[in-house]
Amino acid sequence: MSVTINAHQLGRLIDKVRSHVGPETIEVLHGIRLDADTTHLHAVATDRYTVAAARYRLNKGEQGQEPWARTIPAAWVKPLREWASAHAGAQQITITGETGRVDFTTDTTEFRIPVTDDQDFPNWRSLLHGITLHVPEKFIFPAVDSRMLARWADTGDILRVHVTSDLTALMVFGEDFIGAQMPNRYAGIGPCEDETFEAALAMWPTLDENEDEAADPVTELPTADDPMGTIPEMVQSLLKQTLRSTSDLLGAPTDDPGATASYALAGVHAWSAYRFLDALHRADPRLAARTVAELGEELEAGDYSENAWEIAEKAGHDPQKWSDDYEAHLKRIADKRAAEQSAA
Predict the structure, then answer these.
(1) Which of 72, 111, 313, 324 has the most crowded Cβ, counting Cβ within 10 A?
(2) Does the CA dihedral 310-316-320-324 come out positive or negative?
(3) How confident is the model at residue 212 (pLDDT cuts 50, 70, 90)?
(4) 48, 96 in Cβ contact below 8 A?
(5) Closest CA to 35 of 69, 78, 86, 77
(6) How far apart are CA 336 and CA 330, in angstroms?
(7) How far apart are CA 122 and CA 142, in angstroms?
């Protein structure tokens, strides 16, 4: 009854749900539930107002095992997170549910947390499934607590939101993440106390009512000049370049080996960049977004070649030799072509 996960992914599971841990007054909710089924390890937390579940796919050799679950008490969540952070991100951690405890072990360290084996926890799968059965109303205007909305930022993901009615929970979906938030029955004072959209809108009579001049924020608001754009745009660009290079390779002249090599290399590099970006985004979406933003700034500045030279030198390489060797390679090709043209 054990699963293996690296330290970075264990930290991500904790971070995504820790803001949803219930209060001390509700003991069964005051902690993070580790729930392993036949395919995934889940980290789940709820305080009755929000429910959050993050998951990590088990290694193939661990799939199909008997499901098990234990609740890590809230007092142990912070020490566990710090212990995971003390390891390299790729460090493998084995989580084992023993009698009266959960063990977290690596090749060199061990961390044990006492737990109650038969402690109850809400059937979070059933709760979330029940929300999906609600049919959306024609027009929905629920009231939500902004302080609870802030918790979803810990997922580090772009989230889709599913709303069914004013008085049922809204659902959120991210990458390997699912959750729900209950609407507020009492919406406070001012516009939020009104139960209809029309009544709330009436509190803002100064808004421009000319529908013919209504602006679209997608097209009307200014955007930053970012040559690389967002991660989805960069992914699209890399995949497009891969396919384009493949097409160019198939149509390259057979008597031009240099062109053939260039097209092949461009496709290989574009595909490699896509695979690395995809892996980074899965491991750490925030780091991926920051890296894409920094890359866009470097490309716009145009000094990446100088930076590559400096980085190569600091890494102990000899970029000058690389340059000299490449120039010699180009000269050999030029001399060969000149000789062939003279012979012809």
Answers:
(1) 72
(2) negative
(3) low
(4) no
(5) 69
(6) 10
(7) 25
Share of the chain above pLDDT 90, in %: 33
Which is it for the CA torsion 112, 113, 116, 121, positive or negative? negative
Contact call for residues 32 and 17 (beta carbons, < 8 A)? yes
Q: Which two tokens stand for residue 69?
A: 């679950």
Q: Which residue has the tokens 């460090």?
A: 91
Report d(CA 87, CA 172) in Å as an integer. 31
R_g of the chain computed on alpha carbons? 28
Measure Cα distances from 10 to 34, 52, 148, 288, 309 in Å: 11, 15, 23, 18, 37
Closest residue by Cα to residue 45 from 67, 66, 72, 24: 72
Does the predicted TM-score (pTM) go above 0.70? no
**Alpha carbon distances (Å) from 326 to 257, 308, 323, 332:** 16, 16, 5, 10
CA–CA separation, 325 and 282 (whole Å):
38
